[in-house]
Amino acid sequence: MSTTDSFRRPDLLRLPYDDYRALPAIANSDLSRLRDALNGRYQKPSSMAGALGLGTAFHTALLEPELYEAGQPGINDSLVWWMVEGVKLNPYLSDLLANGVPEPSCIFTEPTTDTVCKLRADLVAPDTDRGYTIIDFKTTMARDYSHFLAQCSGYDYDRQAAFYLDALRADRFLLVGVQKVEPFSLFTVEVPAHMLEEGRAKYLRLLHLLQPDAQVPSYMTEAVRDVREGMSSDRE
Fold first, then answer.
1. Which residues contact 125 (CB under 8 A, 6 or more apart)?
2. Is the pTM of this model over 0.85?
């Protein structure tokens, strides 16, 4: 997606994660809570305290290795580093990691709904052979590429891709599935236009629920109120 003279791409901010969480804006994780409320399974934002998840451990080891803490309860450190090594052995992904900006945040106003939003990407590579690129890594139990591709819509990765790509006016969004079981394969999906259209419809539908004059079903009132108050505590 090319920029125009009237568009200024939001700045990429290097913020500690706690500072990012404190930004008073709507994140993709907030949209996930609204989605869950629509499906009758809303839960209040959980604390970041407690056991570290494999996905979080992997992302830290891959993108911010200096912050990785070995020996966390329930985490197989060897598995984490095997997965990281598998990504780095891929020449193209290794080049993106070497030249991209890891864990950048940004705050922006979504123009259709005039909603102040925020995002924290895994990796942004502004200058590639294919233009401005956002890369997101997902740990997965998918059996093969086709299985992972199906998960992209089922897990609303398409919504995340559209939300991020539209905000940054990126040229493409890459999803990289990293198997967390043998053979630790990689599945790289360049999110196509039709998936972006579906994802865009998803995030706009949810943002419209946050508008002051929105007609919100009673069972969603608590979720909408919590999100409006800027409660965003889940890792994306």
1. 96, 99, 100, 101, 132, 133, 135
2. yes
Q: What is the pLDDT of residue 32?
A: 92
Model confidence at 71: pLDDT above 80? yes
Is the model's pLDDT at 42 over the cut of 80?
no
Distance in angstroms (rounded) separating the CA atoms of residues 218 and 177:
37
Is residue 73 reached through a cis peptide bond, with omega within 30 degrees of 0 on the bond before it?
Answer: no
First to last CA, the chain: 23
Q: Are 154 and 117 in contact (CB under 8 A)?
A: no
Q: What tokens were used for 135? A: 């890369």
Question: Which SS3 state, helix, strand or coil, does residue 57 take?
Answer: helix
Tell me how far apart the alpha carbons of residues 139 and 88 are, in angstroms, rounded to a whole number. Answer: 15
Of 171, 91, 198, 187, nearest to 137 (Cα)?
187
* CATH numbers and ranges of domains, the chain: 17-38+53-228 (3.90.320.10)
Residues 120, 27: Cα–Cα separation, whole Å:
8
Higher pLDDT, 9 or 117: 117
Judge whether 176 and 93 are in contact, CB under 8 Å.
yes
Distance CA 64, CA 114 (A): 33
Q: How is residue 25 annotated by DSSP?
A: S
168 near 9, Cβ under 8 Å?
A: yes
Q: Indicate the DSSP class of residue 219.
A: G
